[in-house]
């Protein structure tokens, strides 16, 4: 891929660079989508998804098919709409006053934006891990057992014990906490807390895991463990991750979507996005020209 020489992004030349790359809303293209999936490969299909906060439009007609059993990453500058779109995928935007979402998001042939969809059951099927680890003020055991109890997934304590043990084992936490299960989850390290939150999410046997910058509050060692975990969980779950780190997106994902100013600019195989992007805005972002 041939690149022009890049001048550094400074306060003085930021406006010139935006004009050069046509970054204003009035010049946004419909986006480049090079991911072609068969109907059997698609797990999540977004069709003309638009989000408004009051009168302010935050997402402008997002169309995106995400494959099952793989990791799709969303990248882009702060405020570009990637986390807003992620929250659409399990109706978390419903909890924000004045937020409206239109379009369709099809998961297993069901439009999850329909008013007939039970959001409690939806969020069991589509789990979410947030930027900052947020264990409940309960024991390690009760954090993982909370969802299965709520949804009636265990009929007795032996079944519940098994779910907790399997979930902690999947996230590589069981050996570290097996003698501390009745201690508060908030007493764990930051990386352990995040893995506990992932165990809590998978304890209800979801099909999709959403991760909103799950490593941004963690140190490099804890980040490496979470990335290893994402790679291990891939295949068992469809994973969608928002990340501020392009290096992380390159390491953990198979598909990458680049968002800017509420638009999906480019979506393709991760390797192609980072080595031969089609859109000039994508090139500008991944080479550090803006963002």
- Give the rounded overall mean pLDDT: 89
CATH superfamily: P-loop containing nucleotide triphosphate hydrolases
Look at the structure and give the CATH class: Alpha Beta
Can you list the strand order of the major beta sheet? 1-11-10-4-9-8-7
Order of helices and strands: HEEEEHEEHEHHHHEHEHEEHH
Helix content class: 25-40%
Estimate what percentage of residues fall within beta strands: 15-25%
Low-pLDDT parts are 1-15, 23-29
Give the helices and strands, then pairings:
Layout: H1 14-20, E1 32-33, E2 42-53, E3 56-67, E4 71-75, H2 82-88, E5 99-107, E6 110-111, H3 119-125, E7 126-129, H4 140-150, H5 157-170, H6 174-177, H7 190-202, E8 208-212, H8 220-233, E9 238-242, H9 246-252, E10 255-260, E11 263-269, H10 270-275, H11 280-286
Parallel strand pairs: 1-11, 4-9, 4-10, 7-8, 8-9
Antiparallel strand pairs: 2-3, 2-5, 5-6, 10-11
